[in-house]
Amino acid sequence: VDESVRKPILYYKNNIGCLLNLLTCMEEFNVKNFLFSSSTTVYGTPKYLPLDEKHPCIGDAITNSHG
Prior knowledge:
Blueprint: H1 2-6, H2 8-28
């Protein structure tokens, strides 16, 4: 985590590059769906527990390399 905070561009490039590879392969093999497991970081401090799919995401929580 510490390195990703110091070098966020490196991590963004890696994540975006991998996403583009995934999408290219999906297109090539006609894959229409995939399951994305997100970090709980997008929720910020939870408004309630346990978290569920209806819990709101916190806008500023998704500006770091983990959300």
